[in-house]
Amino acid sequence: MGMIQTQNLTKKYGELVALDHLTLTVEEGDAFGFLGPNGAGKTTTMKILSTLLKPTWGEARIDGLSVGPVNAQEVRRIIAYVPDFFGSYADLTVTEYLEFFAASYGIMGQDRRRVIGDVLELTDLTGKSLSEVNGLSRGMQQRLSVARALLHDPKLLLLDEPASGLDPRARVEMRELLKELHRMGKTILISSHILPELSELCNKFGIIERGKLKFVGGKDELLARTETGGRLHVRVAERADDARRALAGLSGVTGVRVEAEGLLVELEAHHPETVGQIARCLVEAGLKLVELRREEASLETAFMRMTEGAVQ
Ligand SMILES: Nc1ncnc2c1ncn2[C@@H]1O[C@H](COP(=O)(O)OP(=O)(O)OP(=O)(O)O)[C@@H](O)[C@H]1O
């Protein structure tokens, strides 16, 4: 049984079909990257899953429970929704803000103090507990949103573009936090329109465009679906020229260039086994392999091809 299961989930805003028969399963423990251009239907999906919006048609289940008015309270106990905006909270301090939400979940007294201490530590905000929420940086506000979402110890986190508007350092901090939550066993559904943003965290991806699911699968499957294979960065301890000669003859390799950082290997098509063949070839040639890395940009290309850049 999946942690999230949708069946023909459809949402219309008047004539506009924002979500078109979305059938999707996210297993318990997955970090699922939900990708799509602006207006694809990601927020609509998350809002339906978090009981905030009624579908026009179709069904969604969370941990086996049908999402709807009957189970709304139970579903809300299982999930946490982190929207892509942070509201304004007058002059509340970080602790007051968390106390407010903890109280709304019925967490009281000693428990409340302990839980708030725990989520502040996890999100690295302990030092900010007395600061005013409105004075925090955008990165800290996003982490505080996650802290708030964790108060009731949900099984499933629904995160709508949590990295949007963050500077590079804050993005890294957010990513590390989400990786930690995944390691702790939380199931994560995270949306973004930037693929490299998710490629490190997620074990599964779904691509949505104009409300329709275009693809579901792992990173390798995503790459395999595209026409060109992409590029690999290969570094050997020494004798880069010998490595170039050895790899140039390999089937599936269309070009090898020696660059300042190492070798750039162009592949005809992506097969997961090509990477293994390259490693074996270098080792058999007596070369010391230091690094073998797929160029992330090729994932970006995969995404562009898959969605054809069409936006509503
Ligand atoms: N309340 C609404 N009324 C009318 N149309 C809406 C409403 N909410 C969303 N839409 C439309 O539905 C479509 C899907 O929107 P949605 O916000 O789900 O997309 P998204 O993938 O989350 O995009 P973004 O990356 O921009 O947040 C868009 O065309 C949007 O304009």
Automatic annotation (TrEMBL):
InterPro entries: AAA+_ATPase, ABC_transporter-like_ATP-bd, P-loop_NTPase. Gene3D superfamilies: P-loop containing nucleotide triphosphate hydrolases. One of its GO terms (molecular function) is ATP hydrolysis activity. Residues 4-235 form the ABC transporter domain. Keywords: ATP-binding, Nucleotide-binding, Transport. The keyword Metal-binding does not apply. PROSITE patterns: ABC_TRANSPORTER_2. Belongs to the ABC transporter superfamily. This is Putative ABC transporter ATP-binding protein YbhF. It comes from Mucisphaera calidilacus. The lineage of its organism: Bacteria, Pseudomonadati, Planctomycetota, Phycisphaerae, Phycisphaerales.
